[in-house]
Amino acid sequence: MPAFTPILMSEIRSRFAHVDSCPFQGPRIFFENAGGALTLNSVVETSARFAALPDNQGRDNPAAHALMEIIATAKQDMATLFNPGGGQAFVGESGTELTFRLLRTAVMGTPQGTVIGSTVEHPASRSAATHWAQQSGKLYISVPHDNATGAVTAEAYAARVTADVRVATILHTSPVTGIANDVASISAAIRAKAPEAFIIVDGIQHASHGAIDIAAYDIDGYVISPYKAFSRHGYGVAWVSDRLSDLPLEQLTNGPETNWEMGTRDTGAYATFSDVVAYLNWLGSQHTSSADPRLRIEAASDAIRAHEKALTQTMLHGTGNLPGLAELPGVTILGGIDNPGREGLVTFATNTRPAAEIVNKLNSQGIRTHIRKADHYSGNILAPLGLGAAVRVSLCHYNSPDEIAAFLAAMNGLGDAG
Fold it and tell me: Does 96 score more than 80 pLDDT?
């Protein structure tokens, strides 16, 4: 059963813009959340309010003082969400840009050695790691993921980590399969042989689906893209450890020594991130009597995971007289049918109808999904499976059981689509 009552489901959906209709298409069901989640109405309002302000930070006037207080509050909210136990969080251009910056700093600021990552990673971290490894003369090691589960294990890392690993990357959750990796165990496997390695995590896909607990990971960097976590485009958020900030940073001469921000950042970006944390705080308050913001965040994450698991199980195994995807003939579910690491996403292919045709037919019925092709974004996952393309159905906690049923009705209505 979904974790949300019908009343709470209605309250949740009321907080998001365009939850059941597209301003260009009309009524539609949104299952393209891995491409960018729905935006909170509060974020839309905050963005407009701050876009109108002419004042800059760092001045001696009431408006500038207020802006600096808003940024300080947002950084406290980031700490509540990330639970880092130290270090600092800041905003940048995008999740990809921040991933490149963190890896550039780590790779170029460490002695000769190796850089390690895995084949399951998104090109944001994989490209950054391989590029800067080449520029620095370091060897890049690629840990293979398991094609059947869609995950990479701590054991796979342990088999390839050497004492001279200087920098390591970990993907928290795959945007292609929705399968999460055990960041804490992978980090421990790396540190067992290379305790001083700098470990950078891509948390972009994971952020909207489960709790982030940096203090439990023993890492040095964590990056998210807020537009995939109920905020808006135009900025990314990164957390960095103090030891990563102690490396030589690109910054203004004679400026603050551990400053990561380049130029004046958008105060509205910080403020909209506070909106996200406030929403999760509210959602958590529906599942715990605690007034502690972190405990509410954890309660919200638990409820989100439970609700999304119920939805994906329905999508896979059906509801009422509607068969699920796993019951349709000729369908391959990436990552396997019952994968405990799945987070709000089902990607499938069929041997009877092209993925592009399925996506187009669903879209014509007002059901928004997405095709993943064996290109530079998804080829590392699809090519080893012999797939040229697959259909990605990505949901979030504001999606409802009725929307899953509508999707299954449409899939069963395609006839030989399964």
Answer: yes
